[in-house]
Amino acid sequence: MGDVLYRASLAVVPPLYVWLSRLWFFTCRVTVRDAQYRDEALSHGPVIVPFWHYSFVYILHHLRQYPAMVLVSASRDGEYIARIAERLHFRPVRGSSNRQGVPALMKLLRGMKAGSHLGLVADGSQGPARRLQPGAVFLASKTGAPLFPMVWAADRYRAFRSWDRTVLPLPFCRIVIRYGKPLLVPPDLGDEGIEEYRLLLEGRMNELYEQAWLEFGIERHDNGPGGGR
């Protein structure tokens, strides 16, 4: 019975979510900061867009105009995200550090060398929150693609009680998206080089995160007006 309900929910939930989210986010007023960095990143060809896990709900909607691969957890729950991503014109690649990690990595490398962009949850599927995992830097080093980070903040939102406090912007809220300056990574870095650039990118992304939320007078989204709900 459980499998029947699961399969039924997979058929219903993703299309319903995509339809509702388009209506929901249409009401939000969106401001993009430093749009010139987007043009700079795209001038190199394929790009890697790392973003924090808390932000994935709106990020997928925002990036839907740029068809790309997205790495999605191989878990059972990840199937919902994968199907939603497909309906938003992304190409999901299933895998994580715990399951199907190496095959997924190979698919990402082949896809990027064929010209595909990549969206990547920078702090992984299990965290810790806003601590960069090395995968984005490794892929950038192997492919030559620039790392183009982005974050967003909202003046009205709800944060779920998950490890990352996933954020849902409320209807008619204001959203600020901050693009970061593209980061080019030297080819074929070793462990020390990957760690150096991992820390550099993590610092830049957390700086962008702070700048975005402080526009609304909020230091951290999990401590803000929607963070306790």
Describe the structure.
- There is one protein chain.
- With 229 residues, this protein is an alpha/beta fold.
- It has one domain (2-223): 3-Layer(aba) Sandwich (Glycerol-3-phosphate (1)-acyltransferase), CATH 3.40.1130.
- 41% of the residues lie in helices and 17% in strands.
- It has helices spanning 2-26, 36-42, 56-62, 78-87, 101-113, 135-143, 191-214; strands at 29-33, 48-51, 68-72, 91-94, 117-121, 150-154, 157-159, 167-169, 174-179.
- The longest helix is centred in the N-terminal third of the chain and has 25 residues, at 2-26.
- The mean pLDDT is 92.
Categorize the overall geometry.
Answer: globular
For the record, the CATH architecture stands as 3-Layer(aba) Sandwich
Tally of domains: 1
Termini separation (Å)? 32 Å
In short:
This protein is α/β, with parallel strands linked by helices. It is 41% helix and 17% strand. It has a single domain (2-223), classed as Glycerol-3-phosphate (1)-acyltransferase (3-Layer(aba) Sandwich).
SSE arrangement:
Blueprint: H1 2-26, E1 29-33, H2 36-42, E2 48-51, H3 56-62, E3 68-72, H4 78-87, E4 91-94, H5 101-113, E5 117-121, H6 135-143, E6 150-154, E7 157-159, E8 167-169, E9 174-179, H7 191-214
Parallel strand pairs: 1-9, 2-5, 3-4, 3-5
Antiparallel strand pairs: 6-9, 7-8
Helix pairs in contact: 1-4, 6-7
Question: Keywords for this structure?
Answer:
229 residues, alpha/beta, Glycerol-3-phosphate (1)-acyltransferase
